[in-house]
Each structure stands twice: as structure tokens, then as C-alpha cells.
Amino acid sequence: MTRGGLRSRWAGGVIALLGCLLVFGTAVASATPASSLVGTWSCCGAGGAGAQTWKISTMSASSGAFTGSGGGGGETFPVTGHLTGRSVTLTTGPYKLLTSYSATFTGTLAASAKTISGSWKSTEGQTGTWTARLTTALKKLTTTKPKKKATKPKKKKAKAKKKKKTTGKS
Length: 170
What we know:
Blueprint: H1 3-31, E1 39-43, E2 52-59, E3 65-72, E4 75-84, E5 87-92, E6 103-109, E7 115-122, E8 127-134
Antiparallel strand pairs: 1-2, 1-8, 2-3, 3-4, 4-5, 5-6, 6-7, 7-8
């Protein structure tokens, strides 16, 4: 093989490697949520869904999964969902009074991370559009683990000497 042929193959291999790194890096970056949805969101009232509030209380920085609670129209319900990149899937329900009902909201988080819009459908066949607006400040996601509390070494208990009972007759 000629020297020029080796250079050509080497350059082609480097380009292929860089291409793989670029694709893999983009996939990893889009899978990790850049924003936190933790906070209170005011949703709907138009597009077919009744006005409701979602309080997202926990969110995983690594997976984008979140949980919380919601309410509206005299109902309360759990909220669960997932954020991948800017794509949001959120489910409300089952509802406290109507246990067979739930609704799934799919949408896109705005670049400002203050609104989410999309479409929804329910277990009753209802469909429509929706927009949710952030009404409280977001908590920033952290990927660090909380520090463990320092533990004090346990003190060894001194062995208590047993006293012998003496019975004396007088």
C-alpha cells in the first residue's frame, strides 16, 4: 500500500470517529433535561380541558421523570410525566372522585422554560389543545448527590458489674 493510501484511510477513520462522537454526544445531550419543571403550573381553561393547576414537586436530573399533584374543577389527582430535551409527556389521574379517568398531555417546552403547549387526550376519548404557564420559580436541576450526614462513632458501653445479692439472716 502506498503512503498516500494510508493517509487517506487514516483520515477517513478519523472523520468516521468524529462523526460517531458527534451523533452520540447529541443523543446524550438531548436525553438529559436542560430545564426543571419543578414548580406550579397553571393550565388549560381553553382547548377543551378545564382549568387546572399542576404542582410538580420532584424531577430526576438524569432521567427527566417527574411527579407531583394537581387539582381543578373540584378534583384532585396525581401528576406524573417525563421531559426529554424539550418534549414533555404529562399524565393527570387517576382522579380522586373519578378513578377511571386520566388525561395525557404531550407538548413542547418553550425555550424560556416558562410555557408548555401541545395536545391532550383522555381515557373518555376527549381531545384538544393546551398551554400551561409557570406561576412559580423553577428549581435548578442538579446532578450531584446530596451529601451524607457525618456520623459520630458509637461509644462502647461500659459493662456494668453485677452486684451479688446477699441474703443475711439475723
